[in-house]
Each structure stands twice: as C-alpha cells, then as structure tokens.
Amino acid sequence: MMDCREATELMSRARDEKLTLGQRIGLRLHTLICAGCRRTGEQFELIGQLVRGKPQKQKNNSKTL
Amino acid sequence: MPETPSHQSASKPDPTALLDNEELSALREPMLAFATAKLGDRSKAEDCVQDALLGALQSAKNFRRQSTLKTWVFAILRNKIADALRLQQRFAEAEAIVDGSEAAESFSGLFDDSGHWHDDTLPQPWATPDKTLESSELGTIVDQCVELLPAQHAEVFLMREVLELDTDSILKATGLSQSNLNVCLYRARMRLRECLSIRWFNAGEESTT
Fold this sequence. Notes:
The structure holds two protein chains of two kinds. Chain A has one domain. Chain A contains three helices and no strands. Chain A has helices spanning 4-14, 21-33, 35-51. In chain A, helix 1 (4-14) packs across helix 2 and helix 1 (4-14) runs parallel beside helix 3. Residues 57-65 of chain A have low confidence and may be disordered. Chain B folds into two domains: 1-98; 101-203, Arc Repressor Mutant, subunit A (Orthogonal Bundle), CATH 1.10.10.10. Helices cover 64% and strands 0% of the residues of chain B.
C-alpha cells in the first residue's frame, strides 16, 4: 500500500499528466481509507482555481473540502 | 534585407508592445529598483527587467488580477537576476535570490517515518462557503503565499496552473528535467496548501471558540 508521501506526490502529478493505470488504482485505494490525502487532492484543485482568480462554486452536497 | 521577417516577431515580442500594456509598464520601475539593488549595476538590471517583461508579455492577458501578474513577473525577474549573478560567479547571491533554502526540504516534518501524516499535520477540511472564496482578502493571501515560494517554484506553478501550459512546454521554456519539474510543482502545491490552511481556511480554529 502506498504511503501518504507517495500519494500526495501522485496527486500533484495527476494534475499535470496522465498517471498509469497502476498508479491510479493505487491512489484510489489509498484515498478511500485516508481522509488527509483525500482532502489534500481536493485542496490542490481549489488552489488552482484560486490562483486563476475564478473559484468554482462548490457542489451543494459538499459543504467542506 | 531591410524588413524584419514576420516570423521573427512571433518568437521575440516587439519591445514597443510593452508600452501598450499598462499593467506591465506600471511594474517596470519597481522591478528596476529591485534588480539594481540585487545586481549593483543599473545597465545589467535594465537587461534583466527588459528580458523579464518581454517574457511576461505574451502571457500577461491570462492573469485576471494585477497582484498575481506582479508575483509572476517578479518570479521571472528573480530567475533572470540569478542567471546574471551566476554569470559573474556570484553563486551564493544567486541561490539566495531564488531561495535555495528548500533544496534539502522533503517535507519530513509533515510525515512520520512510515510516510504517513502526523496527527497534527493531517490536513483538515477547508470550510468553503461561497462567500469565503469571493473575499478579496483571500485573493491577497493567495498572492502572498505564492510570493513566499522559491522563484523557480512560483514560476513553474503559475505556468502550469494559470497559463495552463502543458508540461512539455514548461520543460522547454525552463530547461528543467521532468523529475525536477514534478518536484517543483509538488513542493509549490504542498507549500501553498499549508500556507492557505494556516493563513485562511483553518486560521484560528484552535484559538477561537
């Protein structure tokens, strides 16, 4: 099972290039059980929106990231 | 050949176009002051500022906020100044200006020996009602957090996330290796996540009721 350091690195990479199938599966399994890494991935996305100066409205069913 | 071929102007922007871009020309003086202070040489400073402004010209329209544009242009300028310092063999000063202090950083404080979050570094949810995201104060904090990044990290992060360049284009433009680019982008995102948590999204969670 990949650790959090590797998972956060892969979540960063996933924003820049396509991961391999194995990496995507490993990441999915890790984020299923790790809330910290799941939040990190969501926050990476929000950071991108913030620097572009156009945050998207959050979905109604997720009040928090 | 008296006329400049048109394809040349595409690869090297016309310097007079700078005069038409108010946002960029407003940054010229502060940039010149900064570069002169670092280089101690007005004409070398002029060269760096000119290079940085020309480099920024084509992409300036992609920045919606003047403050983020300023952060971007200054990140380019810091890299140009570092190049000039290295040419003069002033390596320590060059490292200081692009902030080499992160060289050994591997976020070892964030993760334990087995590579998992510590209890007190585990990322917390960001409370994000729409109102919070539209605050102009948040925009200022985002820019301040980007400014705290090493120049190289700030430059490639903004290339990727704001200019939305693909990694091949960034590799060509910067001369970085693929793995260096991955590391720069990872560190930039991790630093920004931490900075925004502390300064905004999770600020005061423990001190206020």
